[in-house]
Specification:
150 residues, mainly alpha, 3-stranded parallel sheet, 3 strands, disordered C terminus
Length: 150
Amino acid sequence: MDSTHGLALVRRSAVEYRRLVIGLGAAAVINVTVYALVVYPLATRVANVTEREQAAEQALASAWYSCSPAYSNRHDAVWLAWPWDAGLWGESLPGAQRQFVELCRAIDGERLEILVPDGEAEGAKRDTCCQGDLRTKPERRETEERGTFA
């Protein structure tokens, strides 16, 4: 058999089974495309279990630190800040401090952690009858980077 006879046979088969050959060719192109665009990327993501676990741990830690617990959840203390800045409160400062004391007394059965400036810690503790800790914060100072108060 010579090579021209074999080529003629292939041409004749392709013409007779044209619909089948076109369908098989289209199926092959679709198969390769789906594999390249869907299957291979998913397979590489699934195969990298260590990286996925680390990413999940980081996402969980981020979510844990960024959410506040519900009021009904058990907690160690209630954190409040003593109203002390006359520049902010103006003439309302004594009233704000009285309201703060009433708020502290209304929070019954909870440990209070109150942030106060250094000079007012004793007065705040006496006024609020706080059983928790009074955390003193440093005096206001201007930060060099942003020009804001810390």
